[in-house]
Amino acid sequence: MKAGCCQLQSMQESPAFISFCSLVYHFTFKRDCEELFQTGHTKNGLYIIQPEGSRKLVVQCYMDGCNGWTMIQTNSHNTEITWTEAWTTYKYGFGNLEKDHWLGNEYIHLITKQKLYKVRIDLTNANGVPRYAEYDSFFLADEGDFYKLKLGMYEGNAGDSLSSPMTKNMHDNMRFSAKDRDNDRSSHTNCADVHGGGWWFDSCGLWLLEGVRGSWLVNAAELSGLPTQITARL
Ligand SMILES: [Ca+2]
């Protein structure tokens, strides 16, 4: 529909048309924070997006001056929320969008199937030093494939804890597990149940930074102490 079509007709000429016009007009929501940024939204904050195939979503956008990032997780050392949630809770997301939260595996899947995304994980370690990790591609498969994680190449200074070749420490190419869905590769354990949070477990490994559940990074030694906060964004 052409913009401003309602102004083409006057009330005297066709009031019925004006009424119809207002009914069929709809606002097209952007598919992610990058599209919002590219159309002039440069402030950080909560926005409504609508990924293809999804309902409308409220998301936290981080606009860095060059790009718009869609936040998929924030997690603090002294978080107010528990990460010991069930499959369906992880599917649709939980937490406080303005604080600690998980966007939801289904929505992350729908966003990442739209185009090529990279993911960036930022954190501040216990000494206040910022660290980051980026993967130049990031994709979650659909629920039928257990939201399997597919990562690209690592770059950063926080350490590669997701696609490391260390035995039992691989998260790339793993299926998502929750306390009530054991999709990991440990035959005798549900890693998500043991470790108290959903994740792309292999055979449990060293996923958990003590006190920071749902973490993207596993090697506290690389960080010189536990991080105070972690954010992940697309
Ligand atoms: Ca298992």
Molecular structure report:
Strand 6 and strand 7 form a beta hairpin. The two termini are 31 Å apart. The protein is globular, with a radius of gyration of 21 Å. The N terminus is likely disordered. The chain has 234 residues and is an alpha+beta fold. The protein has one domain: Gamma Fibrinogen, chain A, domain 1 (Gamma Fibrinogen, Chain A, domain 1). Helix content is 17%, strand content 22%. The strands form two sheets. Strands 1, 2, 3, 4, 5, 6, 7, 10 and 11 form a nine-stranded antiparallel beta sheet that branches. Bound molecules: calcium ion. The site of calcium ion has 5 residues, from loops. This is Fibrinogen C-terminal domain-containing protein. Pfam families: Fibrinogen_C.
Q: Unreliable segments (pLDDT under 50, ≥5 consecutive)?
A: 1-22, 207-214, 218-222
Secondary-structure element string: HHEEEHEEHEEEEEHHE
What level of helicity do the residues show?
10-25%
Q: What is the averaged pLDDT score?
A: 81
- Got a strand count? 11
Radius of gyration: 21 Å
CATH superfamily: Gamma Fibrinogen, chain A, domain 1
Structural class, judged by helices and strands?
alpha+beta
- Characterize the overall form: globular
